[in-house]
Design brief:
Length: 114
Amino acid sequence: MEKQAKLFLALSLIGILLLLLLASCLSPEEMKISEINGGKINQNVKILGTITNVKAFSDSEFQLLTLEDETGRITVTAFSEEKLNLTNKQVIVTGKVSEYNKELQINAEEIKLN
């Protein structure tokens, strides 16, 4: 019985490691803003672009960023304890597409300087 428990434990650990490895490989493919449409709602996307405007709210960690690339512009929502000073910086935004007031936007999960 003890050998069986060790086998199950080993298989469980191998499974967890495989899931972690796959999760890191399943990052969304980079796309252009013009490729984002209603069919992408609730899907993760990755966009390379420039932040052209940051609207911070003094009483909240919520911020609205305007992200532009050569094909278009989209609003990015971000929550950060620190106010993001990203205006005119090139970034890679990874997040989920949503719709607010009939406009598509990206709810940022990660914003990295490029």
